[in-house]
């Protein structure tokens, strides 16, 4: 039966495929808070479990994760000199003082192998000692009850674990892996352990006592690469304030004492390295200065001797002064001569422009713009004459555009142009002759000065050649001596201003993992997973669960809600209202009967059809028990089973299906021959009869209407159990004939897409009286609506047996 129902469901979904997208759009238009709260309530236990799981994961993470500690120190790195206080610092002091942009270099120095080598020599980082705990091992930095002296001959033993177990404070067993084999032996403290691969000697420390017995210890001998990687991983150096030249040194490790010791040692080693580097640089600079002074002193003495010989021979001291005076005059003469030559060249250009009639080609452009150098001549007459000539030439060109060259106006203007042009040329030639005369005079003066310079004894040139190296060596020697004095004073007053503003801190609490953060993450993960579970279950919630969903998705009115029948498990639908007249189901069906009376109060004879979308939604159960309730009210009721393909009404009454509706419609039997009685006197039924090959055609037969008319003579209400309308069309044919068509929707079974089918049927067939009933609704399906009167109301009012439930069952029901 389950296989057939699943096949029917799949077939219905395929048939409704054209409307499925529309249904999804309608459902996605808003959030169904009632359904969401229902899903959240059903998922509450899982949300709680996920939160507990997240917190448990956080606890396990904290339990099996080593805490990480961090030690910090803040240093102020600066260099100052007292040379500035003596007035001799100068630029040297600025070179020595450390600036903020060099802090990155100091950081690299701290993280360099130079510092690491000093740390390896001063701290015992080559051997790590551990004791095993219940879950994690702990490093015994500085607290180990034993110490290892070693000499490794085979490098494969580096980074190898050596296990120790003490039988007494003086005797131990040493075990380790070497070339795939485990080597184990017992030794005493101080006893040499000599093998071809290594030599070991273990000595006791002040922390050795009886408590070591029974505990498991081990140590690891690290090579240089491992130590460097360890320091690189744990060490962090960063600039705190570049203006104040402060940096922060931090080191992280699983052992707080070890982290603090490493930071303290880095501070000390860095100071020592800075002083050593400073001394080395100072010695190199001082040696370079002394070498340069000696070399320059020899050169200066040679220059002094040559100058003394020249003075003794020439008996003169001021030759250089005369030479300088004449040189200055020559420079001035040359400058004036060049200016005159430039003016002459300019006049030549202007003359060429005047002769070619190309002073300017634009009416807007002036002569000053066309000939920028005209102002340098300083002759206003020349400028005015050229401007006049330019204006006449421009007017002539403008008039020629409109007049012939033979017209009087053009000829008169050409005569004026020629006249002014000749006058201008004469003026320019006159100015050029004056400038040429001045240039000749300046050249003569320049030649005279050159002659005077040649008359100066050649000794002046020799004196200049001798004086130049002397002055150069003298200045260089003086500067080097002053530099040496300044540098010596600077060295005496320079100290490395290395201040530890904050010494290495003693880590009190680990920086990671932070317990509150880890628990918060676990809680958040649990909540997120829980919300995700609710969201997934809500999105996957595709069945009708409550009346609100039914009313929201359909236009049909809701007659009522039938609660879940929990008294017994029924393999087939049965009549239960006669056996439990005070049960919740009986009261809910009575409520439906009352609503039916309101709908069809004017009619005494009623034809009621009951259908559903697919099999299994409870239409036969509702039909049988609704008929029983109506019959118990005093009305005569007959139930017709028109689901000829899958008849079930006879099974509800435990009767035969040899004859029935199908045989009546083919006139094989009469109505009275097929009527069967039930335990309720006013309730009869006619089974479907043998399955015919053409059920739809039989219903369309006129004999069907005759059968209904004949039944109206004897019964007040005719209830018809129709086939599912989602699979066949028989149900639609019967619903058209019915006074009140009823559509059954089963809670937590009927798909939401089925509700769209109800609306489609109403619109297509104009079923204004079609009503729906929510069947098999649990208590949650009744919330938020007034249907199902009496269900759960007034404890002990109903006589339905309620077995005691255990705590687990009550909790399961609460969260289901």
Automatic annotation (TrEMBL):
Localization per Swiss-Prot or TrEMBL: Cell inner membrane
An annotated GO cellular component: plasma membrane
Membrane topology: Multi-pass membrane protein
Residues covered by the AAA domain: 606-764
Protein EC: 2.7.10.2
Record-linked NCBIfam families: eps_fam
Protein name per UniProt: non-specific protein-tyrosine kinase
